[in-house]
Model the fold of this input.
Amino acid sequence: MTNDSAIDQTGGPIRTAVAGFGLSGSVFHAPFIAANPAFSLDVISTSDAARKSAAAGSYPAARIVDSPADILSLADGLDLVVLGTPPATHYPLAKAALEAGLDVVVDKPFAVRSAEGQELIDLAARLGRVLTVFQNRRWDGDFLTVKSLVETGALGTVTRFESRFERWSPEVAKTWKAGATADEGGGVLFDLGTHLLDQALQLFGPATVTHAELSVRRAGEKADDDVFVVLRHSAGVTSHLWMNMLCAQQGPRYRILGSGGGFTKHGVDPQEPYIVAGGGPLDEDYGVEDPDWAGLLGRDGHLDRLPTERGAYPEFYRILAAKIADGGAISSLPVPVDPAGPVEVLRLIEQARSL
Done:
């Protein structure tokens, strides 16, 4: 089964299917696809009865099917599939979707092994399909703020970068997470860690893992839920990255030290909770952080509050739509996330696990 065009032959919107309607599909993908007129949300797959009802209620024009296999059986009427399924399924489903003639968005982690990710990149290039990875936290408002500080040299020469995703979640809530081992993409290093590693690489370039601590704190956890990783970047920066699902007192989201000053930021980007609470990406106040969470820029005794830039998750699908509309894989426009970056993230995870 093949699909020769990345766009509906009628010149209509990009016909899109979302595989999975848990947090990923319902919060991070479907709302943004539906809000962008360049796309039509045509198919959603989920085997859960409650999620089927929620999907049908929120997106009445979409066809609700049981499984990703059902989506692939409809490939001739689709252009794009978004994989919001558990990590162990990413490689086989992405491979099947590419071979069915579809462009593909894979949620993070790209795959469970770096070799699988590289194989998907090579396959997409050979088949002439668009392939990208949903590293959405490149568009967190706090990360955009940090990126601007680094790029403008506001901190001088950066020497140390500290970044945290810490939560208080004593129970392993999701069924697939409760049963997934590290070999199956389970654990906080594959979950939150892929964001932290990706952001560090985006800011400071290639790196090597020089130290890693992987621990299990919660009953029922099969992989890891308390992780600390140290990166040494080729540019000379040291990154300290924490991810913890059993953290009763959370540290700053970011702390960056440089020769000209520092920046400390608490709190988490508001875009996910805003969508969960029923807001939409087209709302006037979407992505706007409460000013009380502004970070502190400067040095002790000389600190200024720096407002957080507006978060911009819709940018991912805007960039993707432009790429597909311009000819897909043959276009010179960039994909929102070059999958080579997430492959490098997987290599760092493999380094951390080998220490």
Observations:
- Residues 57 and 133 are 28 Å apart (CA to CA).
- DSSP finds eleven helices and 14 strands in the chain.
